[in-house]
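Structure tokens please, single chain.
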Amino acid sequence: GKAVDDAMDAIERDNPTLKGVLPKDYARPTLDKVILGRLIDLVGTIGLGDKENRSKDVLGRVYEYFLGQFASAEGKKGGEFYTPRCVVRLLVEMIEPFKGRVYDPCCGSSGMFVQSEEFIKEHGGK
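Here you go.
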């Protein structure tokens, strides 16, 4: 836990805009160290791609990764709030959101909006 708190301090030192934003309570005695260790190991397995892709929405990819893992862990019940990225991407390809508006009545984690933005970028920003 202390190592994670120290890492958060280092990130804040190198990024002044994050000063006071990042949590630094991972060394608290009530935090289960085994679960924290598993979480750190899990984050370490997330593939971030080549150098060019590493700078692109890493937090978004980490967020989607954890959503997917949570949905998997919850089994059938997890699918109630999470639509896999590949399904959302297919939907976006079908609706071709060029007119600047997307309606997602079941917004959830905003995957439809993220994929719509990516679709527009891939098609020349129209």
